[in-house]
Amino acid sequence: MDDLMRSFNPNHVENPVVKVISPEQIIGLAAQIQDDSVSFPIVALDRDDNTSIDADRMNFTRAHFGVSSVLDTETNNLYYEKAIPVKLSYGLTLLTTNTADRDELLKELMFKYMNMYYLTIQLPYYCKRKIRFGVTIDTNSEIQHSSGSFDYLESGKLYQTILPLQCEGCVLVSYTPVKLKRVTHSVNAELIDKS
User: Fold this and answer.
1) Is pTM beyond 0.70 here?
2) What percent of the chain has pLDDT over 70?
3) Long-range contacts of 135-142 (CB under 8 A, 24+ apart)
């Protein structure tokens, strides 16, 4: 969602032309519309609830045992990163008051996501590392258009379009700490004179 906000508001102006909101903010949208405090168009991103394991990218060792990825020098823990590849889908919803705005925004977003578009996220765990994954249009799903699905101040209509997106290369990660132990050895050696 941060990437969308930067796309529509690169200069961080206070009231951008296109607002990007989270799915949680859509719930309060109806109340705001009654007060006429919302300006359109609005772009919202919502994750599909159907998440599945990506069996084509499954790696038994990485999923069950993990690979060593981080050494915490303060606690002397070595963290093993376990990863399960997953398939994630999103719906990018456009809400506009006219079809011209809807079509223009849809065109811009389709060109943005038509080719594999990479995003980088910082993992919020122990590792302090980043993961890259791709976001692209789901060409197996249709772009959904509807009008009049919301009342706009009882007289106008909102035009809604949902652009299906899919993520490539996503993983669920888990970290297992292993305490490293320090072992010291002492060796006594004697020099033997063979003369």
Assistant:
1) no
2) 82
3) 135/90, 135/165, 135/166, 135/167, 135/168, 136/165, 136/166, 136/168, 137/110, 137/113, 137/163, 137/164, 137/165, 137/166, 138/89, 138/164, 138/165, 138/166, 141/89
